[in-house]
Design goal:
With 681 residues, the protein is an alpha/beta fold. Helix content is 28%, strand content 16%. It holds the Pfam family Catalase-rel.
Length: 681
């Protein structure tokens, strides 16, 4: 301590002491010191009504949360984006007056940002997490934003709890750890004490939380919206994006290793696929429920922790989006794009989902801070393709040069322009829903079933997927230090599946759950990735080659695989063209040092070397790919390594010296994605 500090008796620590607060044991208040009587529910017009603007507590809580970080997004900070276009298969005029969902002759430009949720901009991309899937449609009637995730439900039912969820999920404030991970005490403490999260946690612990790529990932609007036609008739709707390549995932060990090998794995995959002309495609699907059928289900259709089983409410495929252009500048486009679920066009409206209602406030507030003020809509990536006119003026970042003396409504000096548009002229008119009820902080009784659909999800999984869930819970809770929290989670998920809870209870040293079993026997086959599309196109194969390979025959295999859309890249001791590679198709792009089996969907051993070091490196690739259930192929000398590894006749292992036969069988093995029959879970 300096002499000056000693004399003043005012060290830096003493200066800070007056700002230190211990919240434990205290009553909850607003920032103005007002004691709060309810922190679970936003203020609504009736239990199932919309959230009210006068809810000062919700607004203060959400405003503070939205402004906690500058400049990166608090959540969804780690993202990557691409441009595309949407084509409609059939007119939806029966359901909506939205022009881009009626005219099949038009192509609508789109911009899509994929993201992780929990991590910062510098975090790895293959962590266990939900993924954002946000789409901006640049329509002739204005921008429409479908701001969703790769999971169809969410952790909470009311937006007032969103800051709590994210505070629990983010690195713990006392030591800023762990980064981009849910395997820690505060997250699981939140889960155990907010049991509406049960269904979402099942998805988050499943393979859906570690997707193979953005191109093989479903997207969901999550919330219930309304479609309104030109007669004013409304239907409830949920939005889906279905990847044309099917929905596929990594395995956990593979995901962890990729984080170390290539923290940019997902964005690199998206970028390279578009650069190669392998454009990602997603079909738009709608689940539609007539208003009169709102209460005909065993769940509340407005509850964001519930999905609509596809077997009960089929998904109607109505169009396709193709991502066909990479961004020119990540900051100007990916980082400055501003999404908002309140950016709608005529014919698309909202429901009283209380999570959606809160998001309608939160997103604008967030952009005001992140993008420097109210003119974020003037940034090139956010500008609509149609003209915009209003009386808003000035502010940070203003680009529009408004002429004239009038900037108010109503006026006579400019003939009362810009003037409101009638509904016939395309003016947006809110659906006239009848609202009745008292102003309350409450939640509908129909929202209180937290476990039925979590059990539905469990029942719908294949045996490998169930085992992965058990492993995920065991890993995540194995990182939790609090014995109390671990036990609370065991007791909670006994309501979902006693088998699941008992398995991870044993792994984490908790008491097994009491003998209770869910009465839910229903399943939804659409939820299992085992039932997804099997398409080898754009899959990436690592080809291990040596200098003494049969270049002509290997080249023939690579051409046959390419004809099926499979991308092959060669791996060897050093870069360049192998001595035996007299065919232009054979060029080594990776060495054993720069590549890893986890960066490929399959491994092909072409042989061509008897060097001990070469064999050792090749064997490592084989064993790791085998442990991750990936397809493994071998021809010529490569087959000898399969014999040495004792996996010659196992599932997904293909060996032949007949090049045509091999290429066909290997492509089929690649299309299957994983070969769970190896029974090495």
């Amino acid at each position: 301590m300096s002499e000056k500090s000693k004399m003043s008796g005012n060290t830096k620590d003493e200066q800070l002491e007056q700002f230190r607060v211990d919240d434990e044991g205290k009553k909850l208040t607003t920032n103005q010191g007002l004691k709060v009587s309810e922190d679970e529910f936003s203020l609504k017009a009736g239990e199932r009504g919309p959230t009210l603007m006068e809810d000062f507590h919700f607004r203060e809580k959400m405003t503070h949360f939205d402004h906690e970080r500058i400049p990166e997004r608090i959540v969804h900070a780690r993202g990557f984006a691409a441009h595309g276009e949407f084509e409609l298969y059939e007119s939806l005029k029966e359901f909506t007056k939205a022009n881009f969902l009626q005219d099949t002759s038009k192509k609508t430009s789109t911009f899509v940002r994929f993201s992780t949720v929990a991590g910062s901009r510098g975090s790895a991309e293959t962590v266990r997490d939900a993924r954002g899937f946000a789409t901006k449609f640049y329509t002739e009637e204005g921008n429409y934003d479908l701001v969703g995730n790769n999971i169809p439900v969410f952790f909470i039912q009311d937006a007032i709890k969103f800051p709590d969820l994210v505070h629990a999920l983010k690195p713990e404030p006392h030591n800023e750890m762990p980064q981009a991970a849910s395997a820690h005490d505060t997250f699981w403490d939140f889960v155990a004490n907010n049991q509406e999260s049960a269904h979402m946690v099942m998805w988050a612990m499943s393979d859906r939380a570690i997707p193979r790529s953005f191109r093989m990932m479903e997207g969901f609007g999550v919330h219930t919206f309304r479609l309104v036609n030109d007669q004013g008739k409304a239907h409830f709707v949920k939005f889906h994006w279905k990847p044309v390549l099917g929905t596929h995932s990594l395995v956990w060990d593979e995901a962890q290793k990729i984080s170390g090998k290539d923290a940019d794995f997902h964005r690199r995959d998206l970028w390279e696929s578009i650069e190669n002309g392998d454009y990602p495609e997603y079909e738009l699907g709608l689940q539609i429920i007539a208003e009169e059928d709102e209460f005909n289900f065993d769940f509340d259709i407005l509850d964001p922790t519930k999905l609509w089983p596809e077997e009960d409410v089929p998904v109607k495929i109505v169009g396709k989006m193709t991502l066909n252009r990479n961004v020119d500048n990540v900051f100007a486009e990916t980082e400055q794009v501003a999404f908002h679920p309140g950016h709608v066009v005529p014919g698309i409206d909202f429901s009283n989902d209380p999570l959606l209602q809160g998001r309608l406030f939160s997103y604008t507030d967030t952009q005001l801070l992140r993008l420097g003020g109210p003119n974020f809509h003037e940034l090139p990536i956010n500008r609509p393709v149609c003209p915009f006119h209003n009386n808003q003026r000035d502010g940070f970042g203003r680009q529009t040069i408004n002429r004239g003396q009038v900037s108010y409504h109503k006026n006579s000096l400019a003939a009362n322009t810009p003037s409101p548009a009638t509904e016939e002229e395309g003016g947006y008119v809110h659906y006239q829903e009848k609202i009745e009820g008292r102003k309350v902080r409450s939640r509908s009784e129909s929202f209180k079933d937290h476990f039925s659909q979590a059990t539905l999800f469990w029942n719908s999984m294949s045996e490998p997927e169930k085992q992965h869930l058990k492993n995920a819970f065991s890993f995540e809770l194995g990182k939790v230090k609090s014995k109390s929290v671990r036990q609370q989670v065991v007791d909670m998920f006994a309501n979902v599946s006693s088998e699941l809870a008992a398995t991870f209870a044993e792994a984490i040293g908790a008491e097994p759950p009491a003998g209770k079993e869910s009465e839910v026997t229903k399943s939804s086959p659409a939820l299992s990735q085992l039932n997804t599309k099997k398409n080898p196109s754009t899959r990436k194969v690592g080809v291990i080659v040596g200098n003494e390979m049969n270049a002509k025959e290997v080249s023939a295999v690579l051409k046959a695989l390419k004809a099926k859309g499979i991308q092959a890249e060669c791996i060897s001791d050093k870069l360049g063209k192998p001595m035996a590679g007299d065919d232009a198709e054979i060029e080594v792009k990776h060495t054993f040092l720069t590549a890893s089996s986890v960066l490929f969907d399959a491994i092909y051993l072409a042989g061509g070397s008897t060097d001990a070091k070469f064999k050792k490196n090749a064997m490592h690739f084989i064993n790791e790919a085998y442990a991750h259930y990936k397809p493994i192929g071998a021809t010529h000398e490569g087959a000898l390594l399969l014999k040495e590894a004792e996996i010659m006749d196992d599932a997904g292992v293909v060996s032949s010296d007949d090049m045509n036969d091999f290429a066909e069988r290997f492509a089929d093995a690649i299309a299957a994605h994983r070969h769970w029959d190896r029974k090495i879970m």
